[in-house]
Each structure stands twice: as structure tokens, then as C-alpha cells.
Amino acid sequence: MSSADCTKRNAQIEAMKCRTEDGVINRMRGMMKNGLVVAIVVACICTSVAAAAPGLIGLGIMGGEPSGFSAKLWLGNNVALDGALGYAYLWHGQGVHMHADLLIHTGSLLPSLVGFLPLYAGAGVRVRLANGVDNPREVGLRVPFGAEYVLPIVPLGVFFELAPILDFSPGIAFNGNAALGVRYYFGPRS
Length: 190
Prior knowledge:
Elements: H1 3-52, E1 57-65, E2 67-74, E3 79-88, E4 95-105, E5 119-128, E6 138-142, E7 145-150, E8 156-169, E9 173-186
Antiparallel strand pairs: 1-2, 1-9, 2-3, 3-4, 4-5, 5-6, 5-7, 6-8, 7-8, 8-9
């Protein structure tokens, strides 16, 4: 191979590297923009709901799939808005996980002197942002159900939740979440 051929071949390899790097950078920028849009929409919904019906707000952490931060805003005696921001690391991929759900609760299964223990079920949306080229962003419908025990004296709640997920982007697939968490509640107590 002549030196002119080697020079031409090296130029072709460098051009391919630049195109590949530009493609990865552009995909990462797109993921960041999508994540920011989802975060802004969820924040606007939560803010408008909180302004319309102020109530008990719980903030805390959760572990499982996903692991991260959890928030719950009670809209009425049996209705709450629940959300989380965390990291999903199990099943078939890893990435930043966000979800928001509307939950309907039963009455407490315990007398008020012992604490507050409702069961709940609901529906919501889940977004998992990609973590790499081979791990696409997923958007799906969550159907969470679980239980939360709130202590009678200290406004501290411990919850367990299971949530089957039907992903509809990038394709139709079934997925799931399971988490155990704790929240501290702020605001008026009845």
C-alpha cells in the first residue's frame, strides 16, 4: 500500500469517527431535551394541582426498581397524586426513571390509635430515559397498587408498591416496578 493510499485511508477513518461522535452527541442532546420537557410538564402539573387543592405533602426516598426520591400530594380523603424521580437499574436496562400517578385509596384498615393503613391503586405515566445507544428511552402506562402505613403520632409513612407497566414507546412491551419507601408528611393533618 502506498503512502498516498495510507493517507487517504486514515482520512476516511477520521471522518467516520467524527460522524459517529457527532451522532452520539446529538442523541444525548435529544435525550436531555426530552428529559427536561418531561420534568417541566410534571412540575407544572404538580404545581397547578397543589395550588388548586393544598393538602398533606409527603417527601421521601424509595428503594427497589426504581430507587430514588418519592413525593405524594393528598388531594382529598381518598385521592392523591404520587410521583418519583430515581434510577432504574434492573430488568432489561438502566436509566433515569420518572413517574406520576393518580391514586385512589381505601379507608384505613387499622383503628386511628394504631395508625393509618390504606390500600391504593391508580394509573399514571412512566418515562425511563436511555442510558446508552443500545438502551432506548421507554414511555409507558403504569398501574400501581400498594399499601402505606402512616404512624399515629409522627407524620411518617412507610409504603410498598407494585406497578405493572405497558410500554408503548419505542415499542409495545411489558415491564414492572416494585419499591419500598418512606415519606415524611408536611402540611395540615386531619
